[in-house]
């Protein structure tokens, strides 16, 4: 197995430049094929997803504000009850 791998590497060294161009061409062909599949969203879809993102940001901000306030007060109470402050 190892000898076969070494033999394949030795045989491919002279063709490395050709391999690079072939791989680059194949890559660009694949990119072009994938770009043909891309669909631009409609204005209505953009508006609706933007609204969802803004609402989600405010919801998470509110949630983390409440969690921060609760944990902050709990830690303050703990320090006060232990006499650290």
Could you outline the blueprint of secondary structure elements for this entry?
Layout: H1 2-12, H2 16-37, H3 43-82
Total domain modules: 2
What is the overall silhouette?
Answer: elongated
SSE string, helices as H and strands as E: HHH
Report the uncertain regions.
none
Q: Estimate percent helicity.
A: over 70%
Q: Kindly name the structural category.
A: mainly alpha
Output the number of helix runs. Answer: 3
State which percent range the strand residues make up: under 5%
Major sheet summary line: none
N→C terminal distance: 71 Å
Number of strands: 0
Please explain how this structure is put together.
The N and C termini lie far apart (71 Å). The mean pLDDT is 86. By secondary structure, this protein is mainly alpha-helical. The relative contact order is 0.04. It has two domains: 38 residues; 45 residues. It has three helices and no strands.
